[in-house]
Amino acid sequence: MFDLVIRGGEVVDGTGAAKRKADVAIKDGKIAKVGFVPEKGAREIDATGLLVTPGWVDIHTHYDGQVTWDSYLSPSCWHGVTTVVMGNCGVGFAPARPDRHDWLISVMEAVEDIPGAALAEGIKWDWETFPEYLDSLDRRPRVLDVAAQAPHSAIRAYVMDQRGAANDVATPEEIAEMARITREAVEAGALGFSTSRTALHRTRDGEVIPGTFAGADEMIAIGRALGEAGHGVFELASDMTIPEDEFAWMRTFAKETGLPVAYSLLQSPVQPDKWRDMLALTAEARQDGADITAAIACRPTGLVLGWQSTVHPFMRKTAYRAIAHLPFAERLQHLKDPAVREAIISEPEGPAERLGAAFFHGFDKMFRLERDGRLDYEPRAEDSIAAEAARTGRAPEAVIYDMLMENDGQGYIYLPLLNYARFDFEHIVEMMKDPATVLSLSDGGAHCGVICDASFPTYMLSYWVRDRVRGERFPLEQIVAKQTRDTARLYGLNDRGVLAPGMKADVNIIDFDKLSIRAPEMVFDLPANGRRLIQRAEGYVATIVSGVVTFENGEATGEMPGKLIRGPQTAPVLMAAE
User: In Å, what is the CA distance from 118 to each residue of 49, 101, 473?
Assistant: First the structure.
C-alpha cells in the first residue's frame, strides 16, 4: 500500500513534457509511481479535472529573520512554494558578533524594508557563526524546506568590523579570512554565497551596504573558496547593468571553478535595452564554458502605494504629516473629512531627487492596481493616473486620493519602478525565452511595507499561461518547468522539481480555472506588531511536502514536514540519466 495516491489528475511533471492524465503514488516521502496505479493508498485524493505539478522552488527570498520564528513562511506557503532559498543580495544574519546584532538588523531593515522592531523581537540569536545559524534553523519545525546562502555583508562586517561596514579595502589577510568563513559556511550546508553590487541597496545612513565595491581580488578569493568546497552558487544583486571588468571576473571565476554565477537582470528605465547587451555577454560567456545565468522577474518590480504603505504620494504633505502618527482607524476618519482632503491635495509638492520624484510626481507611471475585478500588473500607458486626470479634467492628486480612499481606505496604487520602461511585458517575453535566464526575484519576506511579489509562482500560471491578452502567453508545461526543475537545478537541488519515481514528493494540486491572486492587504502580524503586505491565493486544492499534505483548500493542516536543506541534493538513481 502507498502512503498517498493522487488519482486522475492532469500531471504536468516539471520536465516540460506534455501534460497527461495519470495517478501519482507516494511512499516514504518520495514519488513511487506516475501513471496507472492500481494499488491503494492509505489516503487517496481525487484530482479529476485538476492540475498536478511539482511544488514550486523559489530561489530568491529574504526570510533570513522570519525563518527563526515562523514555521510557515507566509505568504510563500500560500502560493504552493515547497522550497525557498534565502540569504540573497548579500544580506543576512550570520555570522554575527554579539555586538553587531543591531547593525545587521538595521541593514536588513534598510535594504529589504523588513521592520527592524519585528526582527529585534523575533530573532533570538542563539548563534554566532554560520554553521551555528544553520544548526539553529535545523531545530525548528517548519511547513516547507528552507536553504540558505552565506551573505557578503555579514561576513565582511564580521571580519573587518567597522572598516568592513564602511566598504574599506580589505587586506590580504582579511580576504583570506572571508574566504575561510565562506568555505566553512558552504561546507556546513549553505547553497552558495551572495553579494550586492548595486547602489540601490543602502543602509539606514544612506551608505551602500558592505561588499558593494569589493575588489576583484576579494570576489575571486571568495569564489575560489566555493570551488574548494566543491559546490555553491555565486549570487549577485546587480544594477541591471554590469561593467565589462566586473563581468570579466565573473566569467573567469565561473569558467575556472565550473560553479554557477547568477546575477539579477531587470529592464532599466534609464537604459531600456541594456538588458539585451547583458544577455549577449552571458551567452558569449556560456559558449566559453562559464556557467552564468541571469535571474529575471515575471513582472515589474512595482510598489503598492496605500495609506499604510511605506511610501505614498502624500506622505510629505504638511496636512498629512499632521495626522500621520495617528492609528489608522483614527487617521482614516480625518482623511474622510473634505477639508483635510482639500488641504492635502492642494498643497504644492516640493522638489525631490529622482527616486522620490517617482513616488511623489510620477503620475504617468502610477496606475489603479485593481481594475475590472482583477489585479492589473501590465497596465497600458493610457490607464495611468496622469491619463485619467487629463480625461476627467481633475488634478492627478485628486484622482489618487480618491482611489486610495476606496474600500474604506484600503485602495492601492501600483507604481512599477523597474522592468516596465515601455508599458508592456514584451521584454519579459524575450527574457523568459532566453536559455541563459532563470525565474527569480520574488523577494519573499522582504519589502513588507510596499511590495508583495511572493505571489510570483501563482502569477506565472494564472497570467502568463491563462489570462494575458496584451501579447504572447506561454505553454503551461514550460511555465511549470521554469519554477520547479529549472530553479531547483541551478542550486543543485536535483532531488526535487520533477514528478518521477524516486524524486522528493513535493506536489501541488491546482484548480487551474480558479487559480488567482487576491488583492494585497496590510496586516500587523509580525513580532512587535510589525506590518507587512500579504497576498493570498485561490485555487490551490492541496500542497504536499515530502508526501505530507500541508495545505488543503488554502488552509494549513498543521503538519510540519519541512526541513533545512544542507548543500546540494543528489538525484535518485532512476533520474540520474536524464
Answer: 43, 13, 40
**Do residues 292 and 285 lie in contact, with contact meaning Cβ atoms separated by under 8 Å?**
yes
pLDDT of residue 244: 82
What angle do helix axes 338-346 and 328-335 make, rounded to 10 degrees? 80
Mean pLDDT, residues 271-291: 96
Which of 259, 188, 247, 264 is closest to 222 using CA atoms? Answer: 259
Q: What is the rounded distance in angstroms from the CA atom of residue 52 to the CA atom of residue 20?
A: 10
Cβ-proximal residues to 326 (8 Å cutoff; 6+ apart), any chain: 334
Radius of gyration of the chain (CA): 24
Residue % of the chain over a pLDDT of 90: 89
* Distance from C-alpha of 212 to C-alpha of 153, rounded to nearest angstrom: 9
Nearest to 572 by CA among 192, 23, 28, 5: 28
Grid coordinates given for 335: 482623511
Q: At what angle do helices 172-188 and 130-138 cross, to 10 degrees?
A: 20
Burial class, 318, CB count within 10 angstroms (exposed 0-12 / middle 13-18 / buried 19+): exposed
* C-alpha distances in Å from residue 385, one per residue of 402, 409, 561: 11, 18, 46
- pLDDT tens digits, 7-16: 999 999 999 9
> Which residue, 574, 566, 555, 467, is CA-closest to 143?
555
Kindly tell me if the per-residue pLDDT of 576 is higher than 50: no
Residues 375-379, mean pLDDT to the nearest whole number = 97
- In degrees rounded to 5, what are phi and psi of residue 532? -160, 145
* Listed residue (293, 230, 299) closest to 263, CA to CA: 293
Q: Is the pTM of this model over 0.85?
A: yes
Are 195 and 239 in contact, with CB atoms under 8 Å apart? no
Task: Report yes or no: 383 and 369 within 8 Å, Cβ to Cβ.
Answer: no
pLDDT, tens digit, 9 for 90 and up, residues 35-62: 999 999 999 999 999 999 999 999 999 9
Whether the bond into 95 is cis, omega within 30 of 0: yes
What mean pLDDT is predicted for residues 437-443? Answer: 97
Give the integer Cα–Cα distance in Å for 439 and 481: 10
Residues 135 and 190 sit within 8 Å (Cβ to Cβ): no
Domains of the chain, each with CATH number or no CATH: 87-302+421-448 (3.20.20.140), 303-415 (no CATH)
pLDDT digits (tens, 9 = 90+) for 99-115: 999 999 999 999 999 99
Give the helix/strand (H/E) hosting 543.
strand 540-545
